Every structure is written in structure tokens, then in C-alpha cells.
Please model this.
Amino acid sequence: MKIAKAEVIVTSPDRNFVTLKLTTEDGLTGLGDATLNGRELAVVSYLKDHVAPLLIGSDASRIEDTWQFLYRSAYWRRGPVTMASIASVDMALWDIKGKAAGMPVYQLLGGASRTGLMAYGHASGKEMPEIFDSIRSHLEEGYRSIRVQTGVPGLKAIYGIASQSMDTTDADVRYDHEPARRGAKPTEEDWDTRAYLKHLPGVFEAVRNEFGPDLPLLHDGHHRMTPIQAAKLGKSLEPYDLFWLEDCTPAENQEALRLVRQHTTTPLAIGEIFNTVWDFKDLIRDQLIDYVRGAVTHMGGISPLKKTLEYAAQYQIKSGMHGPTDISPVGMAAAMHLGLSIHNFGIQEYMKHGKRTDQVFEQSYTWENGMLHPGDEPGLGVELNQDEAGKYPYEQAYLPYNRLADGTVHDW
Ligand code: GCO
Ligand code: MG
Model:
């Protein structure tokens, strides 16, 4: 089962996606997601110039060996570009192995540990009525757990608030939830941590009063706080019983979470921008977090993320894999196969892709009664319609960034 062809496909149906397609000599194909939002073409070059030539002629059945070869032979380890590239190879090889075996990938990973995956969606609004409406529409769509993001009085635009980031009148294009805007430069937003810390507890109080004590609620802090500010926020949200508080401090400093942890029982989740187990090591070993947010696409693939999650399981830490629309349907399917098979599944983030994306990536995963399932097609269960993909060439697009009132650049 030798690899005969390695293609890198860039398509931009509702946003940019990078996909690796491997074809074996006997005609089996495998897909891998290599999308690195805002830096897509760096991964394209890494794959085309440095990885694809190494794969031709190698044995597609040797997933672990190929991973170790790509990771160790480059000398330069880790980092988002490298790990997204390796991730796409790993995913594509699992896809091929599943097709060769006639089994869905979750069967190869040990079989199902549950019947489906609880998923959360993103509700948001500038002010309370809009937030309530957004929560209600998510409940109508079947979501049983909901992330809530809010505007802050005095601030013009905040990342993650859907209504502020609509830059299109085309209802099919879902820029609303993930505002990577097309253009040569990122747009600027404003930020004030003090105003946010004052405002947020009241929002969760109102949401609890309206929707009751049972609905699992989540919140994303987008790395904007210092450790002591995050500790204060965690404490002030305790009465509203959050499922988790995500990315409360910048992710690079693992020690920061120790301080936060000392002050609050609000569960903590982190890791959507982490690349390897080393970014999680202290957090897991010292039990400073409750959920691992790593994405298959950015943690180097199914193989290393499975190892990281199994390590986390020893400390009763669960999965909460990243699943915004910048993870392609291939990356989402990979997360679902992994999530279905591991014992310590926690929750899956799930933002629905736009219609064009669903036409480019034909999926067999399902969303029913608030639960995801990867489906039972052999492999990952996602196929790329290359004619459709060809209709949407790459367009430069960037996430926004933040400045404080005095002009200082801030984490967004
Ligand atoms: C999340 C994330 C996203 C990211 C986006 C960046 O929790 O879903 O924070 O909203 O900002 O994936 O590419
Ligand atoms: Mg996040």
C-alpha cells in the first residue's frame, strides 16, 4: 500500500481550508485537514515543498512510523505550521487505513465508548435580549450546551459576538460566528478588561435566571486576562455554575493556571492553540485544568492527541476538542472518531459550517438531538468534491486583533 500521490488543495467556500489528499498505488484516498487560520499558505508550502516529496513511495499503512519520521527527521520540532502539516498526514493515513479495513476510524481506535458526542454551540449578543435570542435559537437547533459571549458597555466590537462581525449580506456565508475577514490586513477591535470583569457576572446571572440552573453554560476568555484577573473572574462566576471557563490567560505560561486554580472552583479549559503534549504537560500533571482543548488539526493528528488525552485521563481530565468553523469537516470528523473512542470524552465544540463548505466536503457525520456521531463509512467519512472546491480559490483573510483605549496591542 504505497503512497503514489500527495496533493494539497486550498479552497475557500465560506472561509479558507487547506486539505491534504493522499492516494495509494491501489487507488485508496485519504484526507487530512491542515488549515491554519490566517497563515494557511505557510502550511501549503511546508506540505508541498517539504513533506509531499518524502511521502511518495512510502508505506501508507505505517501511521506511527510516518509520524515519528516527519516529527524527528525535520530537526525543527513543534510549532503550528509543522504540527498542522504532520496532522494532515496522520489524518489522511488513518482515513486510508479505515478504508483498507472497511471500518470507520473509531473502530480502529478501540471502538465506541458511547453512543454519541455532546456538543456545544456559540451563542452571543451585544446586549441581553440579543443574547437570549441567540441562546433560544441554539436550543431550537438542538444544542444542549451553550457558550455565551457578550458585548461590553463602552466597547465597539468584541471578537466572538456574531452581530458585530457580519460583513456580508449573503445569508449562506457564515462569517457571523468566525470573523476571519477577507482583506489584506486584520481589522482592529477594542478591549478593556476592567469593564469586561465588571459586566460578565451580571450577564451570567441574567442567563441563569432566564434559562434555569440545568443548562450547561461555557465562556471563552480568549487569553485576555492576567492570572489574578482570571482568578477573580473564575470566582465571580462560581454562583452561575459554568461548565468551563476557557483560555482565561495567555496559553504560553502554564504556571499562570496554578494561580487561577488556587482561587476558584470554576472548571478550566485551555489548549486550542497548543501543538504538542509538552504544552499540556504541567497543566495535566499538576491537575491545573479540567478540559484539554487541543484540536486534531493543530496537535499533530489523531495519533498524538489520543496519547495526550490518555495521559490526561489518568488525572480525570477530559477532552473538549476545538471545533470552530476554521477546523474543516475533515478535522471535525477526525475529532469525532477520537471523541467517540476515548474513555475520557468531555464535550465537543461544534459550530456548523456554511452551505458551500458542506457542498465541498461531503460528510457522513450526523447531528441529531444535540449529539454528534462520526457515522459508519469506512475511514473518516468525509470526501472532497474537487469540482466544487475549484470554484472557490484562496482569498487572504485574517482574524481581528485588539487595542486598548491608549492604543496598546492586547490579546484578543
Ligand atoms: C473557540 C475559538 C475560536 C478561535 C478561532 C481562531 O473557542 O472556538 O476561540 O473562536 O478564535 O478558532 O481561529
Ligand atoms: Mg476558544
Observations:
- The mean pLDDT is 95.
